[in-house]
Design goal:
Layout (H helix, E strand, L loop, with lengths): L1 H35 L8 H10 L1 H30 L4 H36 L3 H19 L5 H17 L4 H16 L8 H21 L3 H8 L12
Helix pairs in contact: 1-3, 1-8, 1-9, 2-5, 3-4, 3-6, 4-5, 4-6, 6-7, 7-8
Length: about 240
């Protein structure tokens, strides 16, 4: 029994580190893509291909770290939140975990399309720049769609559901759980075309949420985890003499 409790607490601590990784990935990705490379500032496919050729190595590494590895770490956190909430809100916890896995798969897919697409484009650009531009025009919408460029539907829905499950079950500190509800709502709102820029607010708020969540998960102890996951067996009524 104690070994199982210690194992569960250990998994929660690993999940805490995964959550910190997610926060750091956002911290690294936002200034890199928005300022250092300024990919959104490129208005034509030719300009985007030029940026990719000039920054291929660093962009490749960033897409691996902030999409592919991010997706794996996200799946770890999604399972950890499910384990904490399943006793008090089983249906919500299962639904949130499923959405979290969908989001994780979409992000990994986005990173794979971007990295392979960039490699193909860089190779083509050496001999046929027009063909490289055409290929990127075809691949980029697929990758952006998987990554949530049309609005943070999957990300917002997962944070909202996981946080609401935590509110219902008491699996997280109440302030953190309600912050997640707000963050998730902001992400979902970014799906509306007029509110697409809300994705930036979603990303900034998510840094805070992931960092705080990481601290809570990492600080988990065997006794506290067990109290949420082990059902209490009622005592039998005393038998009258």
């Amino acid at each position: 029994m104690m070994a199982r409790m210690r194992g569960e607490a250990g998994r929660q601590r690993w999940s805490g580190m995964a959550s910190w990784y997610l926060a750091l990935a956002f911290v690294a990705a936002m200034p890199y893509f928005l300022v250092l490379v300024d990919y959104p500032g490129a208005t034509t496919a030719a300009e985007k291909v030029a940026l990719i050729v000039a920054n291929y190595a660093s962009m490749y590494a960033m897409y691996v770290a902030t999409y592919m590895v991010f997706g794996i770490a996200l799946a770890v956190v999604a399972f950890a939140l499910h384990d904490r909430s399943k006793a008090g809100a089983p249906l919500l916890a299962r639904t949130a975990a499923a959405v979290g896995l969908f989001w994780a798969l979409a992000l990994v897919g986005c990173g794979m399309v971007f990295t392979y697409g960039m490699t193909t484009v860089v190779g083509l650009a050496r001999t046929d720049l027009a063909q490289a531009t055409l290929v990127w025009q075809t691949l980029e919408p697929v990758a952006l769609g998987l990554g949530g460029a049309g609005g943070e539907f999957l990300g917002g829905l997962w944070v909202l559901l996981a946080s609401w499950a935590a509110v219902r079950s008491g699996a997280l500190p109440r302030a953190l759980a309600w912050l997640g509800v707000v963050v998730g709502a902001v992400g979902l709102a970014s799906v509306v075309p007029a509110l697409h820029d809300g994705a930036y607010a979603f990303g900034l708020l998510l840094i805070v949420w992931f960092a705080w969540l990481g601290g809570v998960l990492f600080a988990s102890r065997a006794t506290t985890v067990a109290s949420r996951t082990t059902p209490v067996t009622p005592r039998a009524a005393p038998v009258a003499p």
